[in-house]
Specification:
Two copies of one chain form a homodimer. By secondary structure, chain A is an alpha/beta fold. Chain A has 14 helices and 17 strands. In chain A, strand 10, helix 10 and strand 11 form a beta-alpha-beta unit. The relative contact order of chain A is 0.24. Chains A and B meet through strand 3, helix 3 and strand 15 of A and helix 14 and strand 17 of B.
């Protein structure tokens, strides 16, 4: 009986035929004996993450795979990214407005000298200095991220995410005033709160001793928090409650930790998980197996196939897939109580250097599935899989079905 | 990278097993080495034009294939047929009511002697004589079609297409008064306008010198315009704007030119394109290839497989398919920047002499598609295609996906 699931998402794994690979995709051309052996012990299929002919972003595709449709739960990248910041997280509530931010440097005239304050390595004390300010009844929480990054959460009544960015995404320009993007009084109010917050926090930051020390040492002061990407934190059930599965997330990239945190999963840090082509995939997979001791559902994200394809680097994508395959050898000995799911969040075509709507391969590996004739984990082999072609919304019900956790309809 | 699409629709191509063909369909039984070779370089599938178990008309199926669902854009055949009439077309606006018409002959008692005025060959001067009349503020436009055919467009306020036909579709009967088909004042008003228009134009036509000359020569006068098939011209985006694709239409049949014109495609006239079994398919395909120099999207319609099946003529259908196959040899050398799509708008079963809901084969041919194992272009071979089974509504997204033109959802 299946009581555990390891759910691996290879970002951007699917692709199109590459002429230099004899018309095979990177996944087909790569030597993947371990993934193929797992596919041979699986029921396979092709997944259209958001449905046929829809080109998915990574954020909404992950939400869809985990059963959180974008129409209901996606309001922008802010709440997802902010959810992943900090060790302790920052508990958000429905209605909070979350934004991503950069600590940067502005001069006396208010022009941006550097959007990253000289690539400052740690903004924890700067975030702490301005965290908790209350503006017009709205509490402004600030949490440090990696390097120059931070998150801002506005907590209070009458807020809206229909506001423009303060970050002009260019240096030498003044900070942009946040403007309402619709006619609502909530948007006007939120823009006003943020502008006041940024002005006041600029004064606070400018007077910090640590900034005077930076200036004295010839470093740019981190004297301004530039915000962007507002989104409302939606009212939603945590993954653990929605499915009655104790879950955790193993990821290198901030967005993917953010997705895990956004869904209430525990974030497991793995040394060597960088979200880059040099990431330690074996360490992540080993951690996943280990985590099944304490968790029912372990989400593992592997990033670099996507980044390499976005660069058009099909050789690099193939090589990275072969590294992932070597690491996947570990999964050949999973116990029968553990379901292994492997898929992708979308295809990324090296030819176009972009996400595409092409479906992605999917396997559910366990002796209890109806193992089909597919013996290769690839875009084309999975066309013949026993699951047929399905959408991301179908995935969690398939997992719950295998785990014997679906409610009965009728009697 | 794909920048052009040639989109071929074989009308009524799908069929059912024919006992005289050893239980094969006309498409299976026909010798089609070129279509099969193209399928072998394609990703294939089966298309249910309007969804499973829906028996499609040609007009609505074409609209659905091009991304214009019938619920939103189909109000009757009038606007589509009228859109295709005349070299210069007749610019319609949303809310106009369009009808098909025949110039016929009525006697002094108002009975129809001949619905086609002795199969008159050209009604241009008759249409011109009654074009532009204004009845109760409604402008009545008349445009000549081929032979006895014409189109009528009512332009003004308060119009409705919920009206009956004036054409009783039989001779020896009086012209039917147009009646409102619902209780709206718009339908009553439109019926009244049309009845006045037909009465007044009958007087005008009866007095024309060209009709006196016809009578003197022993020909039936074209003294009445019988209208039918009212539809409202919908508010809709032109194909070129909807998809950012410069498009044209190559077709022999009036309805299919009408579909192209209705969607705002340029209509390309090809000598020898008759919409009959003798049509010059090779000339149409050659024109399609040539048109890719100036257009991003070339729609080619090939009619006769449908007409032959409607007659139950499976031998003729098979022979016509073999002629189409010979013409398709031209497509074997398409450049890599051109996607070739081949499909049908519906099946027409020789056994039933009627359209059926059986799905139709579909191929997308280009080196950048995930070429599947299908090596025959047929109803049964395409069951195993990598596209699986899909609806007409999925087709344009698949094309846009291959062309790298889909918007990204999420980030």
């Amino acid at each position: 009986m299946i009581t555990k699931t390891i759910f691996v998402i290879f970002d951007g794994l699917g692709d199109r035929p590459i002429p230099a690979f004899d018309g095979q995709t990177p996944l087909e051309y790569a030597h993947t004996p371990n993934l193929d052996a797992l596919a041979a012990r699986s029921i396979c299929g092709l997944m259209h993450p958001l449905g046929r002919g829809v080109r998915p972003g990574s954020d909404v595709s992950h939400l869809a795979i985990f059963g959180y449709p974008l129409e209901k739960y996606y309001t922008g990248r802010g709440p997802i990214e902010v959810a992943g910041l900090g060790k302790s997280g920052l508990a958000m509530q429905a209605g909070d407005v979350a934004l991503r931010g950069n600590f940067g440097t502005v001069d006396a005239q208010g022009n941006i000298i550097d959007r990253r304050a000289g690539r400052i390595s740690d903004v924890t004390p700067f975030a702490a200095a301005i965290d908790g300010m209350v503006v017009d009844g709205v509490r402004c929480r600030v949490i440090a991220g990696t390097a120059h990054r931070a998150g801002v959460v506005l907590q209070g009544k009458g807020l809206s995410a229909a506001i423009s960015d303060a970050d002009p995404h260019a240096e030498g320009h003044p900070v942009a005033a946040v403007r309402p993007l619709d006619d609502s009084k909530e948007a006007a109010f939120t823009a006003e709160v943020l502008n006041t917050f940024m002005r006041t926090s600029h004064e606070t930051l400018s007077g910090l001793a640590i900034n005077e020390q930076r200036s004295a040492a010839g470093q740019l002061p981190a004297n301004f928090l530039l915000v962007r990407g507002a989104g409302v934190y939606p009212s939603m059930p945590a993954f653990n409650e929605k499915y009655d599965l104790k879950s955790c997330c193993i990821a290198g990239g901030g967005l993917y930790k953010g997705i895990g945190a956004f869904l209430g999963m525990d974030i497991i840090e793995v040394a060597g998980a960088t979200a880059l082509p040099d990431t330690d995939i074996a360490a992540k997979f080993a951690a996943a197996v280990q985590m099944t001791e304490n968790y029912d559902f372990v989400f593992v994200h592997v990033k670099a196939a996507d980044s390499l394809a976005e660069d058009g680097n099909f050789e690099g994508k193939k090589t990275f897939i072969e590294r992932a395959d070597a690491a996947a050898a570990l999964f050949s000995n999973l116990p029968d109580d553990t379901l292994l799911v492997m898929t992708a969040d979308h295809s990324t075509a090296c030819e176009l250097k972009a996400h595409t709507a092409d479906p992605v391969p999917l396997m559910l590996c366990n002796p209890s599935v109806r193992i089909d004739a597919v013996s290769q984990f690839s875009e084309r082999a999975c066309m013949q899989g026993g699951l047929g072609q399905l959408d991301a919304a179908n995935i969690m019900p398939e997992v719950l079905n295998m785990m014997g956790k679906l409610p009965l309809v009728g009697a």
